[in-house]
Design brief:
The protein has about 90 residues and is α+β, with helices and mostly antiparallel strands. The chain has two helices and three strands, in the order E-E-E-H-H. The longest helix is centred in the C-terminal third of the chain and has 11 residues.
Length: about 90
């Protein structure tokens, strides 16, 4: 697992097994940098499963010249939003 620090976030590549042994799911896990594993264990999670077509992990479709980094921006927005019990 390779870690890359970005501002106040830590990004790691992760792999999950599936019910089909010949298939594994790959993705990126982005977490706020925290001082303890306990803080990280209490964070909510969002899993984004990309739709059909040639879309990369950041939501870009280079073959169609669509490079908006939408999934990356969404993760940043969720990270930057102040937490509250009402959201």
């Amino acid at each position: 697992m390779t870690k890359v620090m970005e501002d106040t976030r830590s990004k790691s590549e992760v792999t999950f097994p599936s019910s089909d042994p010949s298939c594994q799911l790959h993705g990126d896990l982005t977490l706020p940098i925290s001082s303890s594993d306990e803080d990280i264990a209490l964070l909510p999670a969002i899993v984004i499963v990309a739709g059909s077509g040639p879309v990369d992990r950041n939501g870009n479709a280079p073959s169609m010249r669509l490079n908006f980094n939408i999934y990356n921006r969404f993760a940043q927005h969720i990270h930057d939003k102040p937490s509250s019990d009402n959201t």
